[in-house]
Design brief:
It is found in: Cytoplasm, Cytosol; Perikaryon; Presynapse. The protein is an all-alpha fold. It starts with a helix and ends with a helix. The chain is 73% helix and 0% strand.
């Protein structure tokens, strides 16, 4: 018996590197990828089924309490807005947010802020 062969065989027995077959590795990788795809499809099918069950339950609640779906409610609101502005040549005006209105309101609020920091006699003098 040759010592080289014994050492080589001992390495394999102790968990050393074995000769790798590239064809076998490629086949294992393909099997692994296919298993991952299969699991993903099963997961998607499971969640689609759960969502369908939830939607049936939601629709039952909507029917019971007379609630409309969001899309339907938004569509009706949009249609009402269009009907209101049907005779107008311009689009409907939007509400002006607070603080973006008249300049007088801003000036008053600035003046009030300044007055807070002035001493009492100066406040009296400026109020007159």
């Amino acid at each position: 018996m040759n010592l080289c062969f014994v050492i080589h065989d001992m390495g394999k027995m102790l968990g050393g590197e074995e000769e790798k077959d590239p064809e076998a590795e490629k086949e294992k990788e393909e099997e692994r990828q296919e298993a991952l795809r299969q699991e993903e499809e099963e997961r998607k099918a499971k969640y689609a089924k759960m969502e369908a069950e939830r939607e049936v339950m939601r629709q039952g609640i909507r029917d019971k309490y007379g609630i409309k779906k969001r899309e339907e409610a938004e569509a009706e609101a949009q249609a009402a807005m269009e009907q209101a502005s049907e005779g107008s040549l311009t689009r409907p005006k939007k509400a002006v947010p607070a603080g973006c209105g008249d300049a007088e309101e801003e000036e008053e609020s600035i003046m009030d802020t300044v007055m807070k920091y002035l001493p009492g006699p100066l406040q009296d003098m400026l109020k007159k």
